Request: fold
Amino acid sequence: MVKFVSIILAAVLVNNYVLRQFLGICPFLGVSKDLKNATGMSIAVVFVMVIATAVTYPIQKALLEAHNLGYLQTIVFILVIAALVQFVEIALKKFVPALYRALGVYLPLITTNCAVLGVTIANIDAKYTYAESLVNALGSGLGFFLAMVIFTGVRSKLENSRPPKAFEGLPITLVAAGIVSLAFFGFGGIVENLFK
Amino acid sequence: MSKLTTLTKGIIKENPVLVIVLGTCPTLAVSTQASNAIGMGIAATFVLICSNLVISLLRNIIPDKVRIPCYVVLIAGFVSLVQLLLEAYAYSLYEALGIYLPLIVVNCIILGRAEMFANKNKPLDSVLDGIGMGLGFTLTLFVMASIREILGSGTFFGAKIPWLSSNGISVLTMAPGGFIVFGALMALVNRILRKKPPKDRDCESCALAGSCSSKSGASSSSAAHCAEVKNG
Reply:
């Protein structure tokens, strides 16, 4: 249990996917303009990350590694994620329409989110067990959520600021992201010290 | 468009990273050392040239409806090829690039060029476009990595620079430095080009603008779509 808590804390705070590892920067910059879209996108990311890990992990272990096909990992994973997202979309539409209405527009976009492919590959590289992988996927998704919500707040302040002309728009947003990322450095070492 | 402009437009005028703003994730992540940046640039350029060539050759064969999945499979194939080559012949680079190497698959520069250029141009033009865009990507990565490596850790290609190596601004080599240097470079290019900086990612520069189903829906969902599609 302690192990799971430490994996979640590490994924959310210390190795935050967006702010520390630069995965999923595009939705982070693109959808962080209002809170409603930011939360919708984040929930969809958490959801797909966990399901994608749940599916790709057994495929890697039972199919690819068992038959010595490790080199097909990249191709198989991206295809599985793309198909999975479609499938989840259809299933949600049919069985849980309320959830589909909330997440619908974000689901097809997630296929090309590098954080999702990233987390599935990272789980294999880190040699996690199945349960640990799922927990790590959940934590990574929550970390994305946290970064999105915080940054949406920062951005709403940015709207009213008047930076130098060349910095207007995306450049100043990136600098602001750098400062938020700096704040997350305060969490460095927290997991090692809490659970040693 | 002449062959020469096709080749050179990627370097500044349509720079994929700083002007079109594609492929931000690898740009930020591997630009801590000049040598890694060049390695990443070459790997992505190779994939870009190959995928542009093949997609251009197959542009009349691939059915329009399933073209995106087809492109993704092709790109993933080339990425695996690069992964295996690097693992065999440049293992230290393979280690240094780590997870960002397989993630070239979702690098939007590649899918973006396939969709914006290769599927409607002849093979030769597509290859030139691939070379130009790849050069622009590599050059940007190299400049950014040089700034971060020289000022951040006081080294260049691993060689120590006298005074700087003991007075490095170490935050530049870490994640926040990446964002800040990237923002500053983008501002610099805006200044040089004297054009308004990209305020937002709108549908016109979106890789999938042509086929975007949510385009007519306007509102925030299409912005979300484009932002996501351009992910990388």
